[in-house]
Amino acid sequence: MNTALINCLAIGGAGFVGALTRYGVGLVLGKWSSFLSFPVGTLVINVTGSAFLGWFLTVMTKQRPGPQTETLRLAIATGFVGAYTTFSTYMFESNDLLAKGSNYQAIAYLFGSLALGLIGVRLGVMIGRI
């Protein structure tokens, strides 16, 4: 089997798991979203995804390069995290809050996700360097 096909299968398989993980986290946190009228699930997914990606890619830089390392990096970073995080949903939900006249919540959600996502990446990088 050639490397491109292996990489595609690894990305697809990990993406499947990432999508199911995102769905599960959304289900678990969905009740809070309804209670608070705020997309808590997506916020948690974006922050945890950012932290995990920061940690994972930092750890991967310590590994010896090779085809297996590259396949793993693609599978996890592109497949799993790419399916798990939800930037497009984040934008849609921000727009929905604005459309409903919840301007303060929309602003808090937009800037809160950006700030906490960056903090998550920094935290992941710091943990990955240990």
Describe this structure in words.
It is built from 5 helices and no strands. It is mainly alpha-helical. 86% of the residues lie in helices and 0% in strands. Helix 1 runs parallel beside helix 3 and helix 4 packs antiparallel against helix 5. The chain is elongated and about 55 Å long.
List the helices and strands and how they pair.
Blueprint: H1 3-36, H2 40-60, H3 67-84, H4 87-99, H5 103-128
Briefly, what is this?
This protein is mostly helical. It contains five helices and no strands.
Separation, N- and C-terminal Cα atoms: 36 Å
Overall mean confidence score, pLDDT: 92
If you compute it from the alpha carbons, what radius of gyration comes out, rounded to the nearest whole angstrom?
A: 17 Å
Low-pLDDT stretches: none
Please write the string of helix (H) and strand (E) elements: HHHHH
The largest sheet is:
none
* Portion in helices: over 70%
User: What's the structural domain tally?
Assistant: 1
Helix/strand-derived class? mainly alpha
The overall strand count is 0
Overall shape: it is elongated
Strand content: under 5%
SS field, number of helical segments: 5
Structure characteristics:
130 residues, mainly alpha
